[in-house]
Amino acid sequence: MFGKKRLLTMVVAVVLVASAFGLSGCIEDDDDEVTSIVIAQRHEPEDFHPVRYSDVYTAYVFIQMYDTLISTYPNAQPNAEADGTIAEDFDISDDGLEMTFNIEEGLEFHNGDEVTAHDAEFTINTLMMDEDDDEYFDLYDVDVNPASPRSGDFANVDYVEAVDDYTLEIHMENRDMEMLVSGGFESLYILPSEYIQENGWDDYGNNLFGSGPYELEDRTPGIEVILTAFEDYRHDVNIDEVKFDFIDDETPAITSLRAGEVHYMSRIYPSNYHDLADEENVITRSFQDLGHNRIAFNQHPDHAEDFADPRVRKALAYAIDADEVIAMEMTEELASNTRSPVPAGHAAHNEDLMLYEQDIEEARSLLEEAGYEEDDDGMYFETNLYVPDDERANEMMVVVEHAEEAGIDINLEPLEWAEYISAVESGEAQLSYSGWSGTPSAQYIMAYMMEDSPWAYYSGWYEGTEFTEKIEQAVREPDDETRFSLYHEAQEILVEEDMGCYILYTERMPRAYHESLDIPEESWNPYMGAGPLVALPEWEVN
User: Fold this and answer.
1) Can you give the pTM of this predicted structure?
2) 106 CB neighbour count, 10 Å cutoff
């Protein structure tokens, strides 16, 4: 059994910023002090829907609004101890095929309805079942099932059943050692099943609410999201109002940070992070992210023009001097040169992978072996590379220079985030560059590269059958040593045999906040992608 303690944890959200920073630390209202903070980040939610969304910026907000079934905070192990969980304890059978969750009584959604095991069952089935699955419509009085990109995290589930109002059972077809720490469980935001069935998904989409420490007060797309503390939340919440501002330019946000009008900046540019290190009233810190930054090669059978051949992918890998790329925007403190998608320190990290150190002669040899002939300018072919229009575009300018030495002419296409995602999903990008945020699950860190992944466009539709088979074997393997060995083998296939994706580096997440904020020390850990935002209800304004 895994019991519940009072560890106050709810993951806060960070989003993009493009508005004035007019909210100060404390506001007087009818003689009552209202504690308010402003959080600034560059990207806003891509799809503000708790089922359909696929980006971390949306997740940052939703983890504040919703409770989850269980948590992996603070030590990357599944537990019912965190304050934001609705389970008060749970048990797993010896064979791993049956999980029983006892739901805490008396929990309320923001509209006053009680949270029950039926809501948890509805939520899991909504995420797990296909949008055209007749069984879903037989179970629930709804006319549509929003398509969830996280259905694969429940691939080994047979069925879910609310035995009564406070007991939930999950029955497995196969043992799954990673499911409880997967992205699907991390974002298992408990949905109000009665309200959705009575009013429909469209109505709920326009009136989102959960049972977490914060309620949605207001949202202006492209500008801000404002959350206010849920008065009837069962645990203490120190910050009364949280405003997420979406920024295009960090410069005014940094000015507001110095003045104490912005309190926390997430995903700050490394150059600004280092410039702020000596500021008297600003604190800078970083923590290890569980994801990585990578170049994806378009391998889609209908769209791939240049990189279907692994020899061409390896040629570009040999063309790149990763250390020089990293030095463009990062430092040794913030980035580690590795081809492993799993960061060092995680048991699934493969430290023995070949690095593909820059070798222009080998790159050209591979291109000629693949049938390319150089033209009068010494170039073999022309292609494109899509990248978000931020510091990552500067990193890719270095890659463009390296590729040119090897005879690959790359047209760099920096785009705003939404445009970038659309262009990559459409298949028009032959190369694309961005990051992937993971969870403690090694399987989830590499999930977008697996066959039939709903995030396949992130990997350029890499179809590594052997890679996927190794991951699937690892997920079902109860012996830790054997399981992590299988993950190491999968990475050898990805990097050394297929070069399915070029992992450029794993990253420490740079953050900056005003000295008026008191953030719990234990929240600076790598186990949650939001870092210290996991404990936002515990933050205090001095």
Assistant:
1) 0.78
2) 8
